[in-house]
């Protein structure tokens, strides 16, 4: 049900583009950082509150045009309990603005994270626990992260498992368990390979261009979403959202 809700949002907004949110603190506008440093000094609290304020600004800019948001849990959890509070607060803020909300936890169990942040619509998991990781309840979705873009990713993800690469085997197994598949890859060939194997599975794509993502969508612009993590660093957030949507429309038309 939950992925169907995202598909409905995509059709409503006429774009499969999602906001990526989880900035590096030192890339937030100095004016924002300095304001909270003046209040709380050089502290974890100052950073956490700057992240909260910045996140709400970005969500405001995205709400009218985008279908949802993917929040990078790690960007907030590195600040401990205060960071978790900010993450949970931003999930609630996103839902209040009508955005479908995915928390990119990269955890072993969806149920643990959804118990901690129950307002989230979906979470990401690593696929190595198999179908047990996908226990999320009927109204939630799970997205299995099968490729990442860190430098040593290929050491394991591209090992050969039988007649295919390991990430493709993992994608097929997790799709059988009812999960969607997330690829953190700029390679159009990876995306097309997964789509050929899994023609009905929802794909969530990050760290790639609209051109590279094109092969994930059907003729109606359905079946996938692309996450844009660059918008959050823009000086003019509203303008950045509109430009990103226009660029996406050059490659994918949602009917």
Give structural notes.
- The chain is of the alpha/beta class and 255 residues long.
- The chain has a single domain (2-249), classed as Aldolase class I (TIM Barrel, Alpha-Beta Barrel).
- It contains eleven helices and ten strands.
- It has helices spanning 2-13, 30-40, 44-62, 73-77, 80-96, 110-116, 154-157, 166-176, 188-197, 210-213, 237-249, and strands at residues 17-21, 68-72, 100-107, 122-125, 141-147, 160-161, 164-165, 180-184, 203-206, 224-228.
- The strands form two sheets. It has an eight-stranded parallel beta barrel, surrounded by seven helices. Strands 6-7 form a two-stranded antiparallel sheet.
- Helix 2 runs antiparallel to helix 3 (44-62) and helix 3 (44-62) runs parallel beside helix 5 (80-96).
- The longest helix is centred in the N-terminal third of the chain and has 19 residues, at 44-62.
- It is globular and about 60 Å long.
- The model has no long low-confidence stretch (mean pLDDT 95).
The number of distinct β-strands equals 10
- The side-by-side strand order for the widest beta sheet comes to 1-2-3-4-5-8-9-10
| CATH architecture annotation | Alpha-Beta Barrel
Determine the fraction of residues in helical runs and give it as a percent range: 40-55%
Choose one word for the global shape: globular
CATH homologous superfamily placement: Aldolase class I
Oligomer: single chain
Tell me what portion of residues adopts beta-strand conformation.
15-25%
